[in-house]
Design brief:
alpha/beta, Aspartate Aminotransferase, domain 2, three-stranded antiparallel sheet
């Protein structure tokens, strides 16, 4: 085979910056470089851009601008949600920082001893991103009880089982909207509805509900009112925006303890001068994917289904990990086990043909540990080592898929032998 242009099939790891996004970012690197906290005209321009971006993102999330807290990305947002709740007083905002624009906060947050809660139970699932799992494990080492609700062989959690696991001491439920490795879309809205019922029946505002929506943002409805979530993580780098920027939605009235101190930015919840070029780009990227969501989702569903059909037709004994291609799976995701083939070797040989893909979660690709997601849904270590993830994007064409199928046809018999 003759190598053609690079075919990028790892959009779940990160995405290229859209040209329209780059265009709106450029003035804020040099022409409008002011610190948004100052009062002179250059800074006023930066502050206006910051406020416009907050309003734009809030519109997509169907919420108020003051509920959007800008961060350095999905990992920081997840950490702020989990540790911010875990170390915060539960009710009334006393001693913590409430997300209400009623009056400025001029005091430092309380010490951990002052704000530590006796409610030390959190519910999650075992296929979360490490940005959720590792904070939970740290809390576990500090004496918290973490309940991981089992998922089925496709990675799907049962909403009723989540609610049944709630205890009087449960403070938080954190369940991802869509999985980054196997594409499973979790029933977030149903969990939210059942949680609202639970709160009403028990006359409580707890537990709070957080979802990591980094993978979902380009394809699913992010309306926080429809999902009934209290906290939501979104990442720019997954939606054709710049890396190193994201946000945490924090429902009004919810109290968080800041994890980064040294300034009053982001309502005292995230100190540090805001990354204005990144934030402007993030807002534009979210606007663009929101506008094209319906059309692009339908296109990718058809293209992904075609890709899987061709793989089944050409190769025997292959297995699709996660839900069947359809409404319970991200429209751009295929996670496939090729028995008898070393996944890393296949990845390297595909790269020599100009095809970029992944052996699992991009965030753990540098470790020797097998995928915790595939392990949780029941794959053996041998199966995990024979697994490749393809994640399509807005530039992926049928010609790209056909070329990839030809490359696989060329490589798989050689690797299996």
């Amino acid at each position: 085979m003759q190598k053609q242009k690079t075919i990028y099939l790892d959009h779940a790891a990160t995405t290229p910056v859209d040209e329209k996004v780059l265009k709106v970012m450029q003035p804020f690197f040099s022409a409008h470089f002011g610190n948004p906290s100052a009062l002179y005209s250059a800074s006023v321009k930066a502050n206006e851009a910051l406020n416009d971006a907050r309003r734009s993102i809030a519109e997509v999330l169907n919420t108020q601008p003051d509920t959007i807290i800008f961060t350095s990305g999905g990992t920081e947002s997840d950490n702020l949600a989990i540790f911010g709740i875990a170390n915060s007083p539960l009710e009334g905002g006393v001693g913590g920082v409430m997300n209400e624009a009623l009056k400025p906060h001029t005091h430092l947050p309380p010490s951990r001893e002052e704000s530590a809660t006796t409610k030390k139970h959190i519910i999650s699932i075992g296929i979360e991103h490490p940005a959720v799992l590792e904070p939970l494990e740290r809390l576990k080492n500090q004496g918290w009880v973490i309940t991981y609700i089992p998922v089925d062989k496709t990675g799907l959690v049962n909403a009723s089982e989540v609610i049944k696991a709630i205890r009087p001491e449960t403070i938080l439920i954190s369940i991802m909207f869509a999985n980054n490795e196997i594409g499973t879309i979790e029933p977030i809205a149903e969990i939210g509805r059942q949680l609202l019922r639970y709160r009403k029946e028990h006359n409580t505002s707890l537990p709070y509900f957080h979802t990591d929506a980094c993978q979902a943002a380009g394809y699913l409805d992010l309306s926080v009112e429809k999902l009934h979530v209290d906290l939501m993580t979104v990442n720019s780098g997954k939606i054709y925006g710049p890396k190193g920027v994201g946000c945490l939605y924090v429902r009004r009235g919810l109290s968080l303890e800041p994890q980064q101190l040294g300034g009053s930015q982001e309502k005292h919840l995230r100190a540090g001068t805001e990354n204005i070029p990144g934030i402007v780009g993030f807002a534009k990227a979210l606007e663009l994917v929101h506008q094209s969501k319906q059309k692009e989702t339908l296109r990718l569903e058809k293209l992904t289904a075609y890709f899987w059909q061709q793989i089944q037709k050409k190769f025997s004994h292959v297995t699709l990990n996660g839900p069947i291609v359809g409404d319970k799976r991200l429209p751009n995701n295929l996670n496939i086990t090729f028995p008898g083939v070393d996944g890393e070797a296949l990845l390297i040989y595909l790269d020599s043909f100009g095809i970029s893909c992944s052996t699992g979660s991009a965030c753990t690709a540098t470790t020797a540990e097998p995928s915790h997601v595939l392990k949780t849904i029941g794959l053996t270590e041998a199966q995990i080592k024979s697994t490749i993830r393809f994640s399509l994007g807005k530039t992926t064409s049928k010609q790209d898929i056909d070329y990839t199928i030809r490359a696989l046809t060329n490589l798989l018999p050689k690797l299996r032998s």
